[in-house]
Amino acid sequence: MTGTGVDSGDATRTDTLTRPHSGHELDRVRRPPPMVLVVFGASGDLTSRKLLPALAALAEHDALPHGFAVVGVARTEWSDEDFRNCAMRAAGDHSPAWQKIVGDFRYVSGEYGHPDTFDALKTVLGELDADAGTGGNRVYYLATVPDLFGEIARALAQHGCNTPGDGGSFARLVVEKPYGRDLRSADELDRQLHAAFDESSIYRIDHYMGKETVQNLLALRFANAVWEPIWNRRYVNSVQITVAEELGVEHRGGFYEKAGALRDIVQNHVMQVLALTLMEPPAVVDAQGIRDEKVKLLRAVVVPEVDQVPSIAVRGQYTAGTVGGQAVV
Fold this sequence. Notes:
This protein has 329 residues and is an alpha/beta fold. The chain has eleven helices and ten strands. The chain has helices spanning 45-60, 80-91, 96-102, 115-131, 149-158, 183-194, 212-222, 253-258, 260-278, 287-300, 309-312; strands at residues 15-20, 26-31, 35-40, 68-74, 106-109, 138-142, 171-175, 202-204, 321-323, 326-328. Helix 1 crosses helix 2 (80-91) and helix 9 (260-278) crosses helix 10. The radius of gyration is 21 Å and the shape is globular.
């Protein structure tokens, strides 16, 4: 995942450790500081299919903080134990390390805009700081429909949850895509989030960037003596990016009816890969340096006129069919 937030000071302090690995190798792991990860939309598809398995993998590699807990927030009427069972099921072949961590998971049930929900959340965060050693640090992950992003950020600020707890150094907001429907709505969402959180604490993430092949693009381009000299307009005639997947709409029909595949995949995943493929070498290889070069590249992209769209794009609609021999809705 990548974010546009820029870390500073204590927020970036990590512990470096060595961990025995198979073959007697040593893996160096940068362990984050203690924190609570609060997931809004904890009973949804993204949490069970992506977030919880990813956390379990980090636990398996001993890469989670000392003093770590997850708080799920959603409308579904679950108990703490229900959420813990969901976490165990989502992780599949779980390790003893994951089982131990899940024991500290908590759950808050309620409407996202109701004061009682955030009063309960604030109480739970204080309890975890005291009982699980989470150190007052918070990361809020919005795995909800985009319409709720501004509402949740505003409620967090109104209840004093947009600042660290006692002894903490950061409170961050992680926002999934799509980020607005157009420039106007994206600007409005920026305004709403900035009213509650500083820009340096807001992370607009693209989980596609965590894929190993995508991460390897930078090394392939800039650290490969064969490709680096010829990866330019003199030798490259065209670039084609293909997103090929065997995944139907499944139970995301409501989301796709409002967002569509263009906003779900093209304006984020595909444009990110395009930027990594075509951007100039960053002057400084860090989050800000890479971001600056991406912005330069995206500003150079020629945007088609509206009347050109019918001749360069084909639109379709998901319907019933088969994937891998299995019937899909």
